[in-house]
Each structure stands twice: as C-alpha cells, then as structure tokens.
Amino acid sequence: MKRNLSEIAAMCGGELRRPEDADLKIQGVTTDSRSISKGCLFIPLAGERFDGHDFAADCLAAGADAVLWDKAKGNPPGPAVIVKDTLVALQQLAHSYLKESGARVVGITGSNGKTTTKDIVFSLLSTTFNVHKTQGNFNNHIGLPLTILAMPEDAEIAVLEMGMSGRHEIELLSKLAEPEVAVITNIGEAHLMQLGSRLEIARAKLEILAGLKSGGTLIYDGDEPLIPEVLREPDTLKPESFHTATFGLQPHNDDYPVGLMFLEDGTVFTSSAGGGEPLHLPLLGQHNVVNGLAAIAVARYFGVTEAAIKEGLSRIQLTGMRIEVVKGRSGITILNDAYNASPTAMKAAIGVLENMKGYRCKVAVLGDMLELGETEGDLHREVGAFLKGGKIDRLFTYGTLGEKIAEGAAEHLDPQSIHAYTDKAELIAGLLDVLHPGDVVLVKASRGMRLEEVVEAVKNSDLHQ
Asked: Which of 41, 183, 358, 463 is deepest in the core (most CB within 10 A)?
C-alpha cells in the first residue's frame, strides 16, 4: 500500500496529529516492531501482556515514517494518525484499500484443506491474472488485514484464507473482505472444544456469506449435508441473491472426480465437469483431489481455460508442509504429517497410506488429536475403527488418547499388529524393531505431540535388511 498520511487518516477514520504531516509518503504497514522498513506505517496493537505503543518511538527511529495511535495513550512520539482503536483502524484501513484497488476477492474457509485449496486456487488463477494470496497462516482478524495491505496495487484478484476459533470471527473477516466468491472446503471436527458440535461449526463456517457480494457465488462441499441445512436456517446471514456450486466425491455434485489413479508423485483424475482430459495433481490423497475440485470451480468461475487449469495444476507450490514424503537412510519411505491433526485429516492421511502401492508393510504411527472437547475419546476410537478392510498392516499409537485409537482398531486388526505407547522413547524403539527398508510409515498427530522426533529417528536409522 502506497498512500500519503492524510489519505490513510481518511481511509481508517482517524485524524492527523499535525497538519504538516499530511503529505508524508507511506509505503507498507507493519504491526511487528522487529520488521520495520523505511517509510512504513507502524500500527501498535495492545494485548494482555504487551502494548505496541511502548515500541512506537523505537520504530520511528528505525525508519518508520508514522504510526497509528490510540488517542487514550497520550501523545504520540512523532507523526501519527490518531484513532479510537488501532485494531479497528487496521481493519478499516484494509477494507478501504481493498475497495479502492478494485481487486476481486475469493474467500476460503473450512475445517481442513483451506490452505491447500488457497494455494491451488492461486496457482490456477495466476495462469491468467495478477493474483495476491494469504501468506502462511495470516488468516485471522489481524493477519487478513495485513495480507490485504501487502497486496500490490496492480493485483486483479485477492485469494484470502479465513480462519476462526469461535463464532462471528469469519463474519468479521467476510464483511471486511466482501468476497465475490466464497469457498467452504468441508466441515470437520476442529474447534469442537470451543463450539460443541459439527452443526455449530457449520454455522461458523457459513458466516463467510455475511459479506458475500450480492449475486456472488458460494462453492462448497456437496457431500456435507450440514451446509445446505444451515443455508436454510433463517438466522444465517447471506446476500439477497447468490449462486451456488458444489464439488465432492459423489455424482450428485456439480463436479466430482472420475477415474482416480494414485501415483507416488500425486493423483490423476478427470473432472466430470471438464473436457474429459485427465488432470495430474501433484499432491497425495483423495482428499486433495477434492480440494483440487474446489479450486478448479473457482478458476472456471473466473473464466480460466481448461488448458490453463492443467498448466496451473502442474506448478502448485504449497504453503509450508502437508504430507511430506521422506526417504530414510535405509531406503524406508516416511509420510511425515506430524504438523496437525483432526479426525477428518487423520482419516484422509490413512487413505493416502492405504493407496500407497508396492510396499512390504504399511505402518501407521498415530498420536493424540488435541482440543476435541468432551467427545475426544469417542472421536479417537472412531479413527481406530476406520482402520478396517486392510487399510494398514501395523498400528503404533502414542499418548493417552492414542490408546483410544488402539481400542477402536482392536475391533478390526490382529491384536499382534497393534502397539500402544505413552512413552515416546519406547515407541521409537518398538517401531525400529519391526520396520524394514521396504516399508512405508505414516506419522500423524497434533503438533503438541512432537512426533517429528519419530520421523527423524526412523529417517536416520539403519533398519533390518
């Protein structure tokens, strides 16, 4: 964002501290006192344990040209725009900048897959447009405004991820961004502890309609019955008129995959709504095909050709790591997915393992899924019960909730193939004792379980030949 200080004051509803600062040229904003660039605007935010206003003078000395300043904090240490609340002013500034830019907006939310879907949408749209997207996990009430304010002036489309931990958070983000297209990837179990039920999670995700432009389009997982149920509820905020499009695995959707073929470097499928030509998605798992269909629906909405869609799929670059394929020193294959976990995501990862071909033994190392609320035990047993029909050969679990996965798996797997641990060192020792170089092992749990330590141990071990 490039504006003078008087324009910024008008955009965020503030007032200049001094008239002589009106023509100061501002380029970029930051809320982080450690990342000051010359000529930027520093926006101090206040939390329970910190107050950015305390660092404003240092930021001006480091090269910032001006600050936003809460009028209750006394006199600012230099050029400033005075506002009632710096967080609200940040959000209003982003809203104004987005409207002035004329960029069209795609908003993406969902319990799982929203970051991957965002990255695929960006890749497909970038074949045809100048596109800006959410970086990392900047998807909340602070991160989303900063994403918008980092958008180049010539961006034609902004692809914005919208996250939440409770009700009315996505409503705020949607009203701020006013998307033309809204995407809901799925309704899972994340945030059950805060919201209590999947129906309430669906209501929270459908808040993305609160700011959807009239005549806009909602693209959603058509295999999830809770979404149309919430759409019918009279309390659901939505525009007077909007269109819908569905994607999913089932043939009743507007688009679904045909002829799925799982490869070591991704998945080949045909989009039922496309031209009949097979598409190669360089991501593992059926769940990523569904994410891909959501992204393809967005691309088609904006008129991206089928040839460009195929090209965009070939050059996807994901934010961070999802299921990372790691080759161990002994030749073993590791599916490292130890970054986060929910029941939906864990079942999807198990599906990836199930479809891995040509391995001596398929081993799953599954740990606790955290913050699932009162039903956490049942949800872990449900994941264990999902391990039927020859999906895996051996199961190792870690943690007290992991023991519930083992209990559920005992209904379907040979007890000799189930190993439950609450000590990580013992888990690693037991795992290394049975693994061979020709095996494939999936490692997945919530980040707090730190199962990357298991990945490193397997990766660097000399296994039995």
From this structure: 183
Q: End-to-end CA distance of the chain, in Å?
A: 59
Asked if 332 and 440 touch (Cβ cutoff 8 Å), the reply is yes
pLDDT in tens, 116-137: 999 999 999 999 999 999 987 7
What backbone phi and psi angles, to 5 degrees, belong to 371? 60, 45
Residue with tokens 């460009």: 308
Ordered alpha helix ranges (H), 70-206: 86-101, 114-125, 143-149, 169-177, 192-195, 198-205
| Alpha carbons 41 and 86: distance in angstroms, whole number | 12
Q: Summarize pLDDT for 331-354 with one digit per residue, the tens.
A: 999 999 988 889 999 999 999 999
DSSP structure string for 321-366: -SSEEEE-TTS-EEEEETT---HHHHHHHHHHHHT--S-S-EEEEE
3-class SS of residue 455: helix
Name residues whose C-beta falls within 8 Å of residue 247's C-beta, 6 or more positions apart in sequence: 219, 220, 221, 222, 253, 254, 255, 256, 290, 293, 294, 296, 297
Q: Which CATH class is domain 102-314?
A: alpha beta
Helix/strand/coil percentages in the chain, nearest 5: 40, 20, 40
Question: Which residues, at least 6 apart from 32, have a Cβ–Cβ distance to it below 8 Å?
Answer: none
Q: What is the mean pLDDT of residues 281-294?
A: 94
Contacts with 151 (C-beta within 8 Å, 6 or more apart), sequence order: 1, 97, 98, 101, 103, 132, 158
Beta-ladder partners of 81: 16, 68
* Cα–Cα distance measured from residue 295 to residue 359, given in angstroms and rounded to the nearest whole number: 32
Q: What mean pLDDT do residues 197-225 have?
A: 97
Mean pLDDT of the region 402-406: 97
Q: Does domain 2-86 have CATH number 3.40.718.10?
A: no
**Residue spans of alpha helices (H) in 387-423:** 402-409
d(CA 181, CA 219): 7
Domain ranges of the chain: 2-86, 102-314, 324-459
Alpha-carbon distance of 346 to 397, in angstroms, equals 13
Q: Model-level pTM? A: 0.85
Which fold is adopted by the domain 324-459?
A: Protein-Tyrosine Phosphatase; Chain A (3.90.190)
Q: Which two tokens stand for residue 346?
A: 């864990």
Q: How large is the C-alpha radius of gyration of the chain?
A: 24
